[in-house]
UniProtKB/TrEMBL annotation:
Residues 13-32 have a biased composition (Low complexity). It comes from the Bacteria. It catalyses: L-glutaminyl-[peptide chain release factor] + S-adenosyl-L-methionine = N(5)-methyl-L-glutaminyl-[peptide chain release factor] + S-adenosyl-L-homocysteine + H(+). Residues 128-205 form the Methyltransferase small domain. It is an enzyme of class 2 (transferase). One of its GO terms (molecular function) is peptide chain release factor N(5)-glutamine methyltransferase activity. This is peptide chain release factor N(5)-glutamine methyltransferase. Keywords: Methyltransferase, S-adenosyl-L-methionine, Transferase. Pfam families: MTS (PF05175). Residues 1-32 are annotated as: Disordered. GO terms for biological process: methylation. NCBIfam families: hemK_fam, PrmC_rel_meth.
Length: 302
């Protein structure tokens, strides 16, 4: 993971003609696809943002052969982020491997809410704010929190081995640790009762609606990252049930849901003893439910 604030420039690529080639051996690399070629192939395959995607592919491919292969994979339906090997998220360039959930732009709202609360919860030096990214996928949310907050103790966990491998790259870059397993089970027991900010972007698509998702999600992201059970809230309910034992007094749980699920998610949190509130971003079409473990407000810390 590296910080990334603008589209990479194609001119930063090493010139293919500078690559060493063995004396006397025939050079058989294919001719490099031109920008108009790439745009035309993407457009013919139905890519809505063919120009933008072409820029990213041209800027990322190191050789003509790599560019041709990337264009083929994209035309074959692989999500752009899986083709590139990274996604832009909250101002960061986050590594995303094939088979790992691609972080969505709307989840930046979850990050914004968590950053605001994390700043309020800051412990006086040399104390550190304890942050956990549960169901971390690529680790995009945890990495963004680690980059935005000062003096954090950062942990992340996911059940999918491919996601954990990816998260280890992204979260380690900001000094965090990543664990593999079911929800809270793999976390160090010493975190019980100490977590200030617990973010969990759990799968929340109702099972019956998974088939309605775009093919890029259905075919290239694991079902475990999407399917939230009958009403989409199975995993969320398991998280809210356990969260009070892991949160510090005054600590917060933040989860993303669909707008239609917000009321039931609020009920689940309240039923498990958390004080819920709903935050909505019309701009990002995002809904976040924030549950507070009753206790002293962390912003009152001396
Ligand atoms: C919607 S994706 C979110 C990924 C990431 N937080 C993000 O926003 O990009 C949900 C993630 O939850 C993980 N997951 C699903 N069930 C889980 C469980 N029981 N324990 C841990 N992780 C789980 C999936 O592997 C997937 O990576």
């Amino acid at each position: 993971m590296s910080t990334h604030r603008s589209t990479p420039q194609a001119s930063h690529r090493p010139s293919p003609s500078c690559r060493p080639s063995r004396v006397g051996s025939p050079v058989s690399s294919p001719p490099r696809l031109s920008r108009p070629d790439v745009i035309a192939r993407l457009r013919a395959a139905g890519c809505v943002f063919a120009e933008d995607e072409a820029e990213l592919l041209l800027a990322t491919a190191r050789t003509p052969a790599a560019l041709a292969a990337m264009v083929d994979r994209r035309i074959g339906g692989l999500p752009l982020e899986h083709v590139l090997g990274w996604a832009e998220f909250a101002g960061l360039r986050v590594a995303v491997a094939p088979g790992v959930f691609v972080p969505r732009r709307r989840t930046e709202f979850l990050v914004d809410q968590a950053v605001a609360l994390g700043r309020r919860a800051a412990r006086p030096a040399p104390g550190r704010t304890v942050v956990v990214d549960l169901c971390c996928g690529s680790g995009a949310v945890g990495a963004a929190l680690g980059a935005a907050l000062e003096r954090v103790e950062l942990y992340a966990a996911d059940i999918e081995p491919a996601a954990v491998r990816c998260a280890r790259r992204n979260v380690a870059a900001v000094g965090g640790a990543v664990y593999e397993g079911d929800l809270f089970a793999p976390l160090p027991a010493a975190l019980r009762g100490r977590i200030d900010i617990l973010v969990a972007n759990v799968p929340y698509v109702p099972s019956e609606e998974v088939g309605l998702l775009p093919a890029e999600a259905r075919e290239h992201e694991p079902l475990v990252a999407l399917d939230g059970g009958a009403d989409g809230l199975d995993v969320l309910r398991r998280v809210t049930a356990e969260a009070p034992r892991w949160l510090a007094p005054g600590g917060r749980l933040l989860v993303e849901t669909g707008e239609r699920q917000a009321e039931r998610a609020v009920e689940a949190m309240a039923g498990d003893g958390l004080l819920p509130r709903v935050a909505v971003s019309d701009e990002l079409c995002a809904t976040v439910i924030i549950g507070t473990r009753p206790g002293p407000d962390p912003s009152d810390r001396p």
